[in-house]
Amino acid sequence: MPAAKRKRARKVAVVGVSLSDCGRVDDATPYALHAQAARRALADSGLDRSAVDGLASAGLGTLAPVEVAEYLGLRPTWTDSTSVGGSTWEVMAAHAADAIAAGHANAVLLVYGSTARADIRAGRRTSNLSFGARGPLQFEVPYGHTLVAKYAMAARRHMHQYGTTLEQLADVAVQARANAAHNPDAMFRTPITVDEVLDGPMIADPFTKLHCCIRSDGGCAVLLAGEEYVADTAKPPVWVLGAGTAISHTTMSEWDDFTVSPAAASGRQAFERAGVGPSDIDVAELYDAFTYMTLVTLEDLGFCAKGEGGAFVGKGRLTLDGELPTNTDGGGLSACHPGMRGLFLLVEAVRQLRGEAGGRQVRKAGGRLPELAVASGTGGWFCSSGTVVLGRG
């Protein structure tokens, strides 16, 4: 088709974001947290609920997102229930942006809620050692190879191959906590030291307790809409500039390289489609169920060369006033982690670009707000990745 006759793709913006109550929430159901987050995101956008014709949800109910839609009183004509672990929400955001750009939907709500912490405390569920014992996983489960052990083994490989140290990994947790100290909604805000991380109880060698994410309750929501809705929204738009998705493996024996995550593929796609590079990014929000995830994702997104992540995270580079403010709310290591945390990355990225992050607000030279942010989610044990580049103005 000649360029003059090709229909221009519709621009897509994030027009509303919110958190539900988070942290320690003992008196709410996951459905209630979904509803609370959804209401707040709509209020944040200034749009009426009648504008929402798309819903993306995963992780709740037998027929997600059908049950969530019914609970919210929505009858969407576009839906997505992709479930690939923590990266689910970046993958869903990519799908939703494509659907809106193509005119298949107008406004899509991504919503999540979990009472993972409260359920364990109340005895409604127990901690799971594995995701199941069927299919390819049957060859690993009998040997007690837990999720945390898989991450730990990958971290050990990076340490062996590139000389990454325990102190460098621990510094990731220290800087996440330093950021959380400025976030009144963070579950843990007391500063920690590298020595305190190293001296904690061992969970899976080399990870001590503070190398691992916290367990919390909470939910959040993100509303994306076509460009023509922006004139009626309550807040400045944050544009979806580019997104990428990738999957890698499920069994460790099929993972080609323990030191490379699927973010290497999803990040490359997202940056190419956005027309920017890692050096242009002002704020990074990365999935951090374990300290090694942050380090290797920084490498795979191109913020530093492979094997140089250990040195890169030093000198406070990830703190609010560092060269690359990362996980500015404190991340899953300190702020909140109620399960599939990827949607929280998008919420924080949008708030930073809008200038709504309060005491943890990142500022560029001259006090200017950040202009570009990247949110990159990881699912399973580096099984999947979704990366989204967002821009202001």
Automatic annotation (TrEMBL):
Domain Thiolase C-terminal: residue ranges: 244-392
Alphabetical list of InterPro entries matching this protein: Thiolase, Thiolase-like, Thiolase_C_2
One term of GO molecular function: acyltransferase activity, transferring groups other than amino-acyl groups
Stored Pfam families: Thiolase_C_1
PANTHER family registered for this protein in UniProt: ACETYL-COA C-ACETYLTRANSFERASE, NON-SPECIFIC LIPID-TRANSFER PROTEIN-LIKE 2
This protein's name: Thiolase C-terminal domain-containing protein
Organism: Streptomyces sparsogenes DSM 40356
High-level lineage: Bacteria, Bacillati, Actinomycetota, Actinomycetes, Kitasatosporales
